[in-house]
Amino acid sequence: MTTSRVLAYQGRPVLVATRHGKADPLQRPFGRCLGVNLWSPADLDTDRFGTFSGEVARPGSPEAMLHAKIQLARAEYDAPLALASEGSYGPHPWLPGAALGQEWLLWQDAEQNLTVMEQLWTLRVHYGAYDVSSVAELRPAMQRCGWPQLALTLATSQPGLPVYKALRDLSEIEQCWQQLQAASGSAVVVATDMRAHLHPGRQRAIGRLGARLAHRLACSCPACGRPGFGRWQWQHGLPCADCDSPTSQRWRRWLRCDHCGHGQPQSAVATSADPRWCPRCNP
N or C end: fewer C-beta atoms under 10 angstroms in the chain? Predict the structure, then answer.
């Protein structure tokens, strides 16, 4: 359901608190769903809230950093409508050789006192990071990180040494690795540069997440009329096929309103659970 509150967004500017080109993948879903125009400041220093290459640690939770980025932007610009994005990537905890990523996206409407956040887990974005101790290990590690299609970063664990980013040229990469290895006397971390403006796969993930959030904002709560209805929430307790007792298995998905708590159940994923998941039949 679309209300006048949603229609009021059409044609309005939305500040994207980023320095890494995230407005580009977000413009299409937000333009289609809300009719807004996204823009970013020329050089907003969001790196103070953490960097993928590790020279600046994230000083708080991802959600806190989203709010901090928007607050930083609003200290310089008049922006009632704002978006901020945050991402985290690392080795998958259960699948050897695979990477797991998580993206967060936050919308703030200061005029309506409205905050809506969505997140996305992904296995589809290329990421790699490897300790390289010899020249012979360098080229294979670079290729596992997605080079030459993707840019690389080079860093060490020792403070005070430079961090090299946006590296694509082979000779430059080799030179930077030699300098860091000689200065540190230890392995150099070769990693994929995960900043969005240099990583098409990450841009696509942000675009998918943007579509999810934009569709939520285009849908108003049937109970209170506020934009942003549709946060997923799984209801567990799928009935056992033998005794009808609730199990730990997922039963159906609910769509919720973060403002008033109103929810609507969706179709069930199944009608009954295998008795092996039942605490009564299989204690």
Answer: C
Q: Which domains does the chain have, with CATH numbers?
A: 4-125+199-217 (3.90.950.10), 129-192 (3.30.1490), 231-277 (no CATH)
Short-list 19, 71, 36, CA closest to 213 = 36
Per-residue pLDDT tens over the stretch 204-228 = 999 999 999 999 999 999 999 999 9
Gyration radius of the chain's alpha carbons: 23
Which pLDDT score is estimated for 2? 58
Question: What tokens appear for 59 in the block?
Answer: 């000083």
What is the three-state SS of the chain? CCCHHHHCCCCCEEEECCCCCCHHHHHHHHHHHHCCEEECCCCCCHHHHCCCCCCCCCCCCHHHHHHHHHHHHHCCCCCCEEEEEEEEEEECCCCCCCEEEEEEEEEEECCCCEEEEEEEEECCCCCCEEEECCHHHHHHHHHHCCCCCCCEEEECCCCCCCCEEEECCHHHHHHHHHHHHHHHCCCEEEEECCCHHHCHHHHHHHHHHHHHHHHHHCCECCCCCCECCCEEEEEECCEECCCCCECCCEEEEEEECCCCCCEEEEEECCCCECHHHCCCCCC
CA angle 25, 27, 31 (to 5 degrees): 145
CB atoms within 10 A of CB 140: 12
Model pTM score: 0.90
Query: What's the longest Cα–Cα distance across the chain?
Result: 68
